Amino acid sequence: MDKFTENTIESKTIYDGKVVHLKVDDVTLPNGKTAKREIINHPGAVAVIAITEENKIVFVEQYRKPLEKSLIELPAGKLEKGEKPELTGIRELEEETGYTTNNLSLVTSFYTSPGFADELMYIYITDEIKKIENPPAGDEDEFVEILELSLDEAKKYVEEERIHDAKTNYAILYLHALGRF
């Protein structure tokens, strides 16, 4: 047993939504005291680093209500129940960008906010993309614009905080470390 384990005494569901499940757990701490933990359960998500034949990275710009501003990000989306991450990646790439691929390689996975959420984000990469003649429709409440940027342009957007989320910053750092651009 992990010496830092917190044992759940009671768990109370606060909200059960389309994307997240919020609960409050009463826990026993390793020192015997008790505490409350606010926890968001999330099904997980997938992002795709899609690189064009011209060595441009495909991004989407979309409005993020919690931030009250638009961000430029990797195409990404939530895992559907029982869906394999690779299929989520292809589905989101198609819906958000109109590109598809038959070749995704896993780069990494990480927990987005382990202090309060269990969301596991997978990042895949592909440089074998092609435009779809009739791409599938995206979510009806999602409005995105597609951008194709060089790595240097993406780094500039990071400096300007137009790219300002963890998954996309990670992808840019990863591509920079590869030195392939």
Characterize the biggest β-sheet: 4 strands, mixed
* CATH homologous superfamily title of the largest domain: Nucleoside Triphosphate Pyrophosphohydrolase
Average pLDDT over all residues? 94
The secondary-structure element order is EEEEEEEHEEEEEHH
CATH topology tier name of the largest domain: Nucleoside Triphosphate Pyrophosphohydrolase
According to DSSP, the number of beta strands is 12
Low-confidence runs of at least 5 consecutive residues? none
Keywords:
181 residues, alpha+beta, 2 domains, 3-stranded antiparallel β-sheet, 3 helices
Provide a short characterization of the protein structure.
It comes from Virgibacillus halodenitrificans. The protein has 181 residues and is an alpha+beta fold.
